[in-house]
Amino acid sequence: xxxxxxxxxxxxxxxxxxxxxxxxxxxxxxxxxxxxxxxxxxxxxxxxxxxxxxxxxxxxxxxxxxxxxxxxxxxxxxxxxxxxxxxxxxxxxxxxxxxxxxxxxxxxxxxxxxxxxxxxxxxxxxxxxxxxxxxxxxxxxxxxxxxxxxxxxxxxxxxxxxxxxxxxxxxxxxxxxxxxxxxxxxxxxxxxxxxxxxxxxxxxxxxxxxxxxxxxxxxxxxxxxxxxxxxxxxxxxxxxxxxxxxxxxxxxxxxxxxxxxxxxxxxxxxxxxxxxxxxxxxxxxxxxxxxxxxxxxxxxxxxxxxx
Amino acid sequence: xxxxxxxxxxxxxxxxxxxxxxxxxxxxxxxxxxxxxxxxxxxxxxxxxxxxxxxxxxxxxxxxxxxxxxxxxxxxxxxxxxxxxxxxxxxxxxxxxxxxxxxxxxxxxxxxxxxxxxxxxxxxxxxxxxxxxxxxxxxxxxxxxxxxxxxxxxxxxxxxxxxxxxxxxxxxxxxxxxxxxxxxxxxxxxxxxxxxxxxxxxxxxxxxxxxxxxxxxxxxxxxxxxxxxxxxxxxxxxxxxxxxxxxxxxxxxxxxxxxxxxxxxxxxxxxxxxxxxxxxxxxxxxxxxxxxxxxxxxxxxxxxxxxxxxxxxxxxxxxxxxxxxxxxxxxxxxxxxxxxxxxxxxxxxxxxxxxxxxxxxxxxxxxxxxxxxxxxxxxxxxxxxxxxxxxxxxxxxxxxxxxxxxxxxxxxxxxxxxxxxxxxxxxxxxxxxxxxxxxxxxxxxxxxxxxxxxxx
Lengths: 307, 456
Description:
The structure holds 2 protein chains of 2 kinds. In chain A, about 50% of the residues lie in helices and about 15% in strands. By secondary structure, chain A is α/β, with parallel strands linked by helices. Chain A folds into 3 domains: about 10-80 and about 125-200, P-loop containing nucleotide triphosphate hydrolases (Rossmann fold, 3-Layer(aba) Sandwich), CATH 3.40.50; about 85-120, no CATH class; about 205-305. In chain A, about 35% of the residues are buried. Chain B folds into 4 domains: about 10-85; about 100-200, no CATH class; about 240-270, no CATH class; about 275-445, 3-Layer(aba) Sandwich (Rossmann fold), CATH 3.40.50.410. Chain B contains 18 helices and 6 strands. Chain B has helices spanning about 10-20, 30-40, 45-55, 60-85, 100-115, 120-135, 140-150, 170-195, 205, 215-235, 250-255, 290-305, 320-325, 330-340, 355-365, 390-400, 420-425, 435-445; strands at about 275-285, 310-315, 320, 370-375, 400-405, 430. A 6-stranded mixed β-sheet of chain B has the order 3-2-1-4-5-6, with helices on both faces. In chain B, strand 5 (about 400-405), helix 17 and strand 6 (about 430) form a beta-alpha-beta unit. In chain B, helix 5 (about 100-115) packs antiparallel against helix 6, helix 6 crosses helix 8 and helix 10 runs parallel beside helix 18. The radius of gyration of chain B is 28 Å and the shape is extended. Classes of the chains: A alpha/beta, B alpha/beta. Chains A and B meet through helix 2, helix 9, strand 9 and helix 14 of A and helix 2, helix 3 and helix 10 of B.
């Protein structure tokens, strides 16, 4: 796969993603394909837990590229994202120099040129991705958590794939990284950033596809049970919850059901294992009431609640 | 890889032009991207073509919705106008089937819908139209015909099983069949009249919030969930910034101990997002029936986001419902309880704004202060009763800020019995609020952000 950096068709991308354990739907596969063909960054939006980050990881596995991840948070600045000078090391260098040859007047010039070299540069994810000799996948996770200034800084990186360091000059990308940005849509991103990206909206999968996903990760689960499980998860997502269950949580739940050796998802099993997919006090009450009822038998529910 | 056929390029540009006219911001660079993307996918596969185009030009969910609406319409029209120009009529495959049994047709349609086979649905839609036409029930108005055919075929979504043993159909699938019906009816109309109906801009209503109670509450909720998340993070983006921050002397001096008393590092006071006290008054009378479902769910969302929030509903009288919202998590239960025990309708069931102001002022006059924000959700239709604008003025003077959200388009304000102007001048700002965009603009203001630039 590494010998074939440019995929030939959408189906090919889809297949290679599937091989590494990510079942992409049509739009996701298409956008992943276009990202590699056009070399444009991809902006992935969608609710939490639909596999946005996982998509980037899967692309990295499928293309056998290294994944470089930049996790965004409030107050993230250039020093943490791009590069930083290693002050301590620079200081040591200067001290060592002045200790050795105090009388030498040319020492300063040598040192000056020296301490702003790559040896004293701490590379952060963005610079790492740009400077990498092998092609990489750059994941900029939860870009909506940062402020607009940071976004503006990203523009240079994303459109020209270069970073300017005043002391060293412009560092240009040697290879073209695949860039994936994810956003939970908690803030509107700037037009300028969106303009440079391909856009992909990921949503919770349909029952059929989620079933495939669950069965891929918990292969021992039999089909009937998997369907039942996914249907219940979908039922839970229909409710107005603070935090609807993610795909990862349905997988966790499937594994738990396997471990418990249950052969059906009834009200009592649901009440016991509900905490795997529902994680808010108020949500639990609502889910217990709505979904527990549907699964049948108040007795089962009460038995489970006390146990 | 695959080159676009000649003639498609101008069409694409025209399509982007149409998207722009609907408020989707598409730059030249995006059109170039679209072409680059389409060079890489087979243009003969509709799914790929559509997705590739969408990924490059529609950069938000809202844009995507408009894109979907326009894509179907635009390329359908383009194909039809081409067909008209060249005088190609479709071969009528199904006109002959005279002995067609309505029962059989009904079964076949249900099966096709359940299987989700598009081609078959399209053929059956034509068949249904033909069969229907022979019974002489066609009205010529497309919307009416679609509904009649649907009823004749007995297409109901699940929940009301028409007959035991029938395949269950969900609403989404039926809607798909309905789209085919609509399209085939349009096609027939175009062939009959030999001209295209004039292209209209998307009615704002197509893009507006689903508000009528008949529609899915889920739609409203999707819009509101988005809003909730925005509200929850409002003010957070301010935190990481230094600009405009206030130096915290105590912590700065303390930090200076590290550097021998020289304050090298400045410490700043953390910024606290503004968390206002909010009073919401919501009109739930019949004149705003469709909007009040939406407003109640907005209220619901606000309750999750702001701790200091008191809500009231009113028609002729006012009634506080804060407690209901705090105790109930489920929206449906809330709206039921409000209609049951709100006790807001007195005799007539018509809104009486004047009386509402008087009661509101009386009830909470002492609590209102400069930190309070009053939000009124209503259409300002007083049904000819005394508006008591001076009482409203008193309320606004006591409260720090007053906002008015009106579910009617600005165009209708002050027509008929609407006395919006009388109230509007006392408010901090009044908004029309019938799409998510309006709502977002408003939320931004409440949370202390800058108002969004109104588009279109």
